Amino acid sequence: MDAIELLKFYFITPQEIIGILTGVLREGLMYSVASLGVYITYKILDFPDMTVDSSFPLGMSITAILLILDVPPILTLCISFIAGALVGVITGIIHVKFGVRDLLSGIIVMTALYSINLRIAGRSNLPVFKKPTIFHLEYFNFLDRSMKTILILLVIVAICKILLDYYLKTKNGYLLRSVGDNEKLVTALAKDKGNVKIIGLAIANGFVAFAGSIFTHDRGFFEISAGTGTLVIAVSNVIIGMQIAKRIKCISDTTAVIIGSILYRACISIALSWGLEPRDLKLITASLLLIILVMNSIKRKNKVA
After folding, report:
1. What one-character DSSP code corresponds to residue 139?
2. pLDDT in tens, 60-93
3. Segments of the chain scoring below 70 in pLDDT
4. Beta pairing, strands 125-127 & 221-223
5. How many angstroms separate the CA atoms of 158 and 152, rounded?
6. H-helix or E-strand spanning residue 125
7. Which domains are assigned to the chain?
8. What is the pTM of this model?
9. Is 69 within 8 Å of 132 (Cβ atoms)?
10. Cα separation of 65 and 119, whole Å?
């Protein structure tokens, strides 16, 4: 049985496979930007930042309103990043300056942002289908719509990765890594570890809000519940990426996180293709994260043994 017959046997045409792969790349690249932000909080700072579940829809709500006001699409991305960064600063200040535990500080800001997002958008669902977005740029009109979207996403993700890599190689970037690995070292260098942590949270939530902005550009609407589970998805992407980085030494952590995001989205697509419905998506997401965490735990125990 050749490849074509095998595809027909499973009732999947080559066009359908291309469609699935395109969807996986599209979703994976969009969430990879948020995953780069969570990489900072989860992997570098070891900070369980629940803020991201609301900073994602924050980027969505701001973008939706700005598009309605005919603000240039690219500018909406920058404004969303700044708004997310400010939210990260607030979370950091609550934790560092007021001594609130990391998890609680994130929950406080996440809860407050729910109402703020509704205030910004004016309602829980705001469509912007007829407004021009970053995916309507004329530079790539020689491609069909799907390939044009993927190419634009690749450019955006590449820019985000390069900028983050550059920052992590600067003096401030090394200080950020040190806060997560050895806080005493930062103090020994006469640097305020709290301020470094606040900067890290700002960058992380900036990336997450930036991803929310991209999501609105792609989907054409704001939805208040769209951010639910963002942290779980992003953490899963980061964990998968870190496992890849351990096995393939030649790629950087940020590249691995992007690959992890695409692979995670592929797992979701496979689960849905097995008959699960879109309403089961959150269940699938939680189950995949649980499986990943359990497998990591088993591997650690085997190494100790």
Report:
1. G
2. 999 999 999 999 999 999 999 999 999 999 999 9
3. 1-14, 16, 181, 184, 187-190, 304-305
4. antiparallel
5. 10
6. strand 125-127
7. 3-123+136-304 (1.10.3470)
8. 0.90
9. no
10. 11
Confidence at residue 267, expressed as pLDDT on a 0 to 100 scale:
85
The DSSP letter of residue 251 is S
Cα–Cα dist 240/259, whole Å: 8
3-state SS assignment for residue 221: strand
The Cα 110–Cα 123 span in angstroms is: 18
- Please give the pLDDT value at position 97: 94
Helix (H) or strand (E) holding 90: helix 73-96
Q: What pLDDT score was predicted for residue 273? A: 74
Other Cβ atoms closer than 10 A to 294: 10
Place of tokens 């992590």: 168
pLDDT at 10: 52
Secondary element (H or E) of residue 64: helix 52-68
Beta carbons of 174 and 199 less than 8 angstroms apart: no
- The radius of gyration of the chain's CA atoms, rounded to the nearest angstrom, is 20
pLDDT at 153: 95
Q: Which is nearest to 296 in space by CA: 233, 242, 234?
A: 242
Q: What gap in Å lies between CA 37 and CA 88, rounded to an integer?
A: 11
pLDDT of amino acid 13: 63
What is residue 99's DSSP assignment?
-
Residues β-bridged to residue 31: none
State the Cα–Cα distance between residues 229 and 249, nearest whole angstrom: 30
